[in-house]
Amino acid sequence: MSTVKKTYVDVAHGQIHLRYVAGRQTVPTVFLHQTASSSAMYQAVMEQLGDLAPLYALDTPGFGGSYRPPVVPTTDYYVRTLLEAIDALGIERFNLFGHHTGAALACQLAAQHPQRVRRLAMIGPVQLTEQERSLWRDSAVKPLTIDDHATHLAEVWQRVTHLDQQPITYPPSTALATREAIDTLIAGDRWHEAYAAVFAQDFPAWLAQVDCPLLLICGDGDVLHPYFQRACQARPDAEVLELEAGAYVLDQQPQYMAQVIRTFFQQAGTPATTA
């Protein structure tokens, strides 16, 4: 198993925390996490991918060990800052993997900077209509109210243990749920800002502009699974993988997911033909 280390890089508004595996491959791989997780969600997979290294999993601003944004962030802000961190690491062209919020940011980054991203893989592409985005904003963008009775602790536990579609088919272990709860508490009363940014983003427009080879992934228990076929139809050129899994597949099936990532990113980087 590969050794995963931690470090920081400086960007305009603070420091980005990241996990990394050193290596000598020509093309590095960058991982972007879901909300309200951190780069910790990639630890188990990165341990399996030493042959693909160097690997870098970044904590989005406001999450994990990264700084809190001085403004209310948008996806434009997140993408710009994450690219600053990638630049600070001396990375030029790279493979990119995003999960949920990370998928939304990765897709926009790949569309805006096609010369930088060699291949793009996403779990749970956020292929929502404007009406659906509005409904998600109303139902899911809820600030965490921290009070003296610690009701926020129960609220966070409920969230991380019920992240998937109901009924829960692939529940997280107690240890995994605890890690995710801690990450949510670290993000604190601003964790919801990433959701607000994603549900304000026109993901389908960015997906249409991506010009590199694509891998679209989703588990049948994932809360975003109902929209998955729509993303696949929008990009018939993409490779598609539908799993018996939920939102925590990277932790629950790390060896399998490492092989999926390895197989896709080791292919030749022939540009995609967008519709």
UniProtKB/TrEMBL annotation:
Organism from which the protein derives: Stutzerimonas degradans
Matching Pfam families: Abhydrolase_1
Keywords: Hydrolase
Annotated AB hydrolase-1 domain residues: 30-229
Gene3D superfamilies in the record: alpha/beta hydrolase
GO molecular function annotations of the record: hydrolase activity
Protein name, as recorded: Alpha/beta hydrolase
